Structures are given as structure tokens and as C-alpha cells.
Inverse folding.
């Protein structure tokens, strides 16, 4: 039982490049979330999903896209990376919307 | 969405002492959750307290909730060096997004 895993752990991009972050959970959770955390700040919600095939915008969705083609996977895409997207990205999942969230270990992304 | 505001921003205590951190929020909630984040790691859920509960315990952790004052507190008793981490509260109301505040950075000195 791995919980929530994220791939990759680290990535460096040049401005304008694209990439996809993968989140996988093996707990059969309906809800999945993508957050970003900047130094000295709390987590801000980018997008979330309430089930397979559904996604919704969070607090800071601009510049990101997501997809949930399979229940266990939640992908976060950056189509044209910008230095402002340098951050640590965390994925989380939960059984129900108001419930305990299980977090992945994070992906540290640097955009130069 | 509403953000919990943790207080203090930073706290240093000696091993064995108790640590108390507070969370304030602005609107009504259905529940409030506390999380811990060790440096460079993901958040770990500690306790969920519902709006109709006033106190909850889990091991050395005690959480209180005062909905009239829109505040919650997290008490860690007999602190250990391993408790060194950032602690976040997340007040939640149905239909809103989770928003995590900047957290309280706790340092437990040996």
C-alpha cells in the first residue's frame, strides 16, 4: 500500500517548456487535489477532482491543466512554464470532500 | 474559501515542554483539520474536529474548537525533537475549497 505517489520528485524546466506531473493513489479515493507551496506560505489549491473524468478549478488554476482519466491517477500539466510556477507541488487524495487528505511527497519544480 | 490563520508564526520550546498553537478563521465551518509538515515532506493529517465537537484527543495531541470565537488550538504535550515541524490548520465549509494558512513553525530543542 504505497498511499499517494508523485512523479517526478525534481524537475528543472526552461521558460516556455511543458511538462506533466503524475499523481497516483492506491486507496480508491474519489477526491484528488493538486496544491502548490511557495516558501513561507501555506498550500494553495490549483485544481481538484471529485471523481474519474471530472475536474474543477481551485484558488490558483491559471497556467495549469489537469486530467483524471483513471480514478487512481491525477495529472497536472504546465503547457508553457513560467518562472512564477517555480514551486513545490503536492498531490493529495481523500475519501470524501470534507475528510482527511493524504498527501504525496511533493515535486520540486524550478523554471529558469 | 476561507483560510485559517495560525498563531504564532514560529515557536521554540525545550524538549518536554508543552506547545500550543492557535488557529482563527472567519466564517462558519463544518470541520477543522490540523496537519503537520516535516521539512521537505508532504503534509500529514493529525486530527479532524467537527463543528459540534469541542475537544478531541489523539495521543499527545489535544485539539479544542470554539465556534463562538471562530478559533481552534492544538496542544502538543511533552514535546519531543521529532515534533519539530510546521503545523497547519484547515477550516472547512461545504462548497468551499480547502485553504491552508502559512502555518506555525515549531522547533523543539533538545
Amino acid at each position: 500500500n504505497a498511499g499517494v505517489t508523485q512523479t517526478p520528485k525534481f524537475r528543472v524546466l526552461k521558460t516556455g517548456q511543458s511538462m506533466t506531473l503524475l499523481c497516483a493513489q492506491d486507496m480508491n479515493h474519489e477526491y484528488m487535489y493538486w496544491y502548490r507551496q511557495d516558501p513561507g506560505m501555506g498550500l494553495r489549491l490549483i485544481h481538484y477532482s471529485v471523481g474519474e473524468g471530472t475536474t474543477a478549478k481551485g484558488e490558483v488554476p491559471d497556467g495549469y491543466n489537469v486530467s483524471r482519466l483513471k480514478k487512481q491517477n491525477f495529472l497536472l500539466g504546465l503547457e508553457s512554464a513560467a518562472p512564477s510556477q517555480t514551486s513545490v507541488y503536492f498531490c493529495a487524495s481523500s475519501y470524501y470532500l470534507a475528510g482527511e487528505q493524504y498527501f504525496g511527497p511533493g515535486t520540486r519544480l524550478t523554471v529558469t | 474559501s476561507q483560510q485559517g490563520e495560525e498563531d504564532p508564526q514560529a515557536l521554540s520550546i525545550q524538549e518536554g515542554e508543552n506547545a500550543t498553537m492557535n488557529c482563527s478563521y472567519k466564517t462558519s465551518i463544518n470541520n477543522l483539520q490540523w496537519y503537520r509538515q516535516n521539512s521537505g515532506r508532504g503534509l500529514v493529517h493529525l486530527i479532524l474536529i467537527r463543528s459540534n465537537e469541542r475537544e478531541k484527543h489523539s495521543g499527545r495531541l489535544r485539539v479544542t474548537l470554539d465556534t463562538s470565537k471562530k478559533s481552534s488550538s492544538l496542544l502538543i504535550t511533552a514535546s519531543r525533537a521529532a515534533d519539530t515541524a510546521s503545523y497547519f490548520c484547515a477550516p472547512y465549509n461545504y462548497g468551499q475549497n480547502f485553504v491552508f494558512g502559512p502555518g506555525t513553525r515549531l522547533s523543539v530543542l533538545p
Remarks:
- The radius of gyration of chain A is 13 Å.
